[in-house]
Amino acid sequence: MQKVNTAEQMRNMDQTAMHGKYGILPAVLMENAGHAVAERADSYIGGWAGKDVMIFCGKGNNGGDGFVLARHILAAGARVYVYVLGHTQAYSEEARQHLLTLLALEDNESCIVTNCGNGDIDWQLLQKRLHASQVAVDAMLGTGFHGDLREPLTSIVAMINETAAAGNLTVLAVDIPTGVNADTGAVSGSGEEENGPVFADMTITFGALKRGLLLYPGRTCAGAIELDAIGMPTPLLTQPEEDPAYLLQESDIAEILVPRSPASHKGSHGTIGIVTGSSDMAGAALMAAHGAVRSGAGKVFLRVPAQTAPYCIGRQPEIMVRGVGSHAFFTHEDAASILAESTSWSVLAMGPGMGKEAETKEFVKCMLQGTTCPVVLDADALNILADEKEWIRPMGQRIIMTPHLAEFSRLSGLPVSEIQNDLIGAAKAFVAEWHVNLVLKGAPTIIVSAKTGNAYVNPTGNAGMACGGMGDVLTGMTAAVAARESHPDICSAACAAVYLHGAAGDLCRKKYGSYGFTPMEVADAVPRVVSTLEENMAVPLLQEPLIGGTHHEEME
Both 85 and 231 in a single domain? Predict the structure, then answer.
């Protein structure tokens, strides 16, 4: 699991590495950072030899990294144009020393060092060099940026983006693209061209991932992301943070999705109760149930209002459907019979297509108060509970809420724009108040644990999944993963379900393209994702045949 740090956390790490018990010289870390950019980008750009490279170096240590980079790629055969955006005396001691070394190498042919001027002739020359170059390196601002860019950065950034958009320039960012907030992913000028951020093709970042590289719109600016430890001690890189956030990785999910025991049976893999739907939204109920089936649930019971049952019965034989009551929606009177059943359920899921009638609200209240198993809540169940925090708090640690941004806005009372400005912060604050496990669906999806307060960022999924029904499938998947034989922690189950859901969507994108694949097709892709995870596990699978060897033809 990879840490995702704030700018302050990174500053603390740097200080500990340099001035704490490790005593690593700042100039050494800067040297390592510049060398890391040279090495990490080499294959991406097709080698440095013969390339004309523009390097824009700001006043801070980010600029110092750029000076080091210039020296390394000069040795690799590149021609470098280094634009210095600050006075020599304005740099730190170590950055200044690297600049002086570079100035000693200047020959006005293969290595040209220029102070950024303000005259028309200077700008024309800069533009001419950009158009003649193959690579531009953004080493202007580091992780301390917030707000909006100012001149001359505004003009430089606009010129870089314009040249790159013409297809003639590869843009590399050092640590983080200029104009991106390292904590929130917010960008200068709200992405407007005249005052916007650098749009990099690749970002080489150091020590730990920055939140702003993973959160939109900053993620759009980062391009391909490479992480280099730059010699930071391992204990420092892995130490817990006071405000923890992590990027989910395939290895983390593989640990949660332990292969099935060969002696297991349907009862071992969970009994899922999906209580949802209404006469107008039978499809939502079916998609949730299908998500549970495809995610390995041993048994799936679908309970819908009586008038909805005819639309669901027989649509998928693996799903055991029963209509409840006599209405087109759930009422208070329907709760008793379902609660009696729920004593044998591993997980209960409610919400998709349920409706928001007053009688249904009372039904949801009864179900929450009467059931003892973990509960997954989505869609209409969340809207019903928007003003009912006190119903939730006593049982919060066994509840998973899965809102999208609009639903989360209603639950939290925060405007969508405020949530988007700090996704992780808003999600953590909500969990601290409501005491639930949260899956805040979006780009990216954020999962927060009620037990620990840890936040997890999901890297899978794509824009092709932005269609009705995807959340319904995720509801069933989450319930199924939470009921697995290995009995994962409820937040771990939510993380695994979200990762699988996104990865299945990524498979569909590869097969169908970015438009038009359906939630049911995403659910159908889940077994393939799980199979790939199992193949990559270090532990041997126990499902191989006892006779006939371990290799057999794959089913068509």
Answer: yes
